[in-house]
């Protein structure tokens, strides 16, 4: 089984605010735990090297036992200080790509030509494309043969309501829900904010918020393990 590529952000602060941001930690760990037990997960970032953690994601209310264990694991922390650089990797070597979230991703995932091309190649190879929360924004600029990857696809991602509740509407360069609709996606969301919600449309798997990362991992794992041999 080819490994899964999990992409994390290198962005430490919002562009127009002196406020720290970065990776929403559990959106990596919950997915990692679901997948890595049976399928290797490689962690990479646009620039390589360190991925900062959004300090809000490390508050006790957002950290369960397994996530805390990863945070205290020197080897895991080292892997996040030394992530692979995307340009050093080959999309042909991966069965799926997963975009973690955190507000930092809105600045170095979206409109990144290298990420766009990498994602398009994995999808064109028959692989899975998955993302959670703000990481779904990475899919908004991916195109294949001149058509937006998510146009006409049913997907989810961090909602406008959740952004307002997070008090970050003025910090972000755009509202993700609005952007996904503008690209032509069939955007859907849970009836209640901050509850687990996922969508699967063919080989595109998305989760709405931090509470959805584990479910995205489960779906990706099962889809890959049950995929017919080519």
User: Uncertain spans, ≥5 residues at pLDDT below 50?
Assistant: none
Mean pLDDT: 97
Q: Can you tell me the CATH topology?
A: Rossmann fold
| Class per helix and strand makeup | alpha/beta
Give the overall silhouette. Answer: globular
CATH homology-level superfamily: Class I glutamine amidotransferase (GATase) domain
Number of domains: 1
CATH class descriptor: Alpha Beta
First-to-last CA distance: 12 Å
Q: Architecture, according to CATH? A: 3-Layer(aba) Sandwich
Count of distinct strands: 11
Largest sheet, if any?
7 strands, mixed
Q: Compute the gyration radius: what is it?
A: 16 Å
Total count of helical runs of at least 4 residues: 8
Main-sheet strand order equals 3-2-1-4-5-11-10
Relative helix content: 25-40%
The SSE string, one letter per element, is: EHEHHEEHHEEEEHHEEEH
Strand content: 15-25%
Question: What report would you give on this structure?
Answer:
Belongs to the peptidase C56 family. HSP31-like subfamily. This is Type 1 glutamine amidotransferase domain-containing protein. It contains 8 helices and 11 strands. Helix 1 packs parallel to helix 8. The chain is 30% helix and 16% strand. It is globular, with a radius of gyration of 16 Å. It has a single domain (4-225), classed as Rossmann fold.
Please summarize what this structure is.
InterPro entries: Class_I_gatase-like, DJ-1/PfpI, Prot/Nucl_acid_deglycase. By secondary structure, the chain is α/β, with parallel strands linked by helices.
Give the helices and strands, then pairings.
Layout: E1 4-7, H1 25-36, E2 41-45, H2 65-71, H3 74-81, E3 84-85, E4 96-99, H4 105-108, H5 113-124, E5 128-132, E6 143-144, E7 147-148, E8 154-155, H6 160-165, H7 176-183, E9 186-187, E10 198-201, E11 204-207, H8 213-225
Parallel strand pairs: 1-2, 1-4, 2-3, 4-5, 5-11, 8-9
Antiparallel strand pairs: 6-7, 10-11
Helix pairs in contact: 1-8
């Amino acid at each position: 089984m080819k490994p899964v590529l999990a992409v994390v952000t290198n962005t430490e602060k919002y562009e127009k605010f002196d406020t720290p941001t970065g990776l929403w930690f559990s959106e990596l760990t919950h997915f990692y735990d679901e997948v890595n037990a049976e399928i290797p997960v490689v962690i990479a970032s646009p620039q390589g090297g360190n991925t900062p953690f959004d300090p809000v994601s490390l508050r006790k209310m957002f950290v369960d036992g397994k996530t805390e264990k990863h945070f205290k694991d020197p080897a895991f922390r080292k892997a996040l200080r030394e992530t692979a650089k995307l340009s050093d990797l080959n999309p042909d070597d991966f069965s799926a790509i997963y975009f973690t979230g955190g507000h930092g991703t809105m600045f170095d995932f979206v409109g990144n030509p290298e990420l766009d091309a990498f994602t398009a190649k994995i999808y064109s190879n028959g692989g899975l494309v998955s993302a959670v929360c703000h990481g779904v924004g990475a899919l908004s600029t991916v195109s294949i043969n001149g058509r937006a990857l998510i146009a006409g696809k049913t997907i989810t991602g961090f909602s406008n309501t959740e952004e307002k509740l997070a008090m970050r509407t003025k910090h972000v360069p755009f509202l993700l829900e609005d952007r996904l609709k503008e690209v032509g996606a069939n955007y859907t969301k849970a009836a209640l904010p901050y509850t687990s919600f996922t969508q699967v449309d063919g080989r595109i798997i998305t989760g709405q918020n931090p509470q959805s990362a584990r479910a995205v991992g489960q779906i990706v794992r099962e889809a890959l393990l049950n995929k017919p041999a080519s």
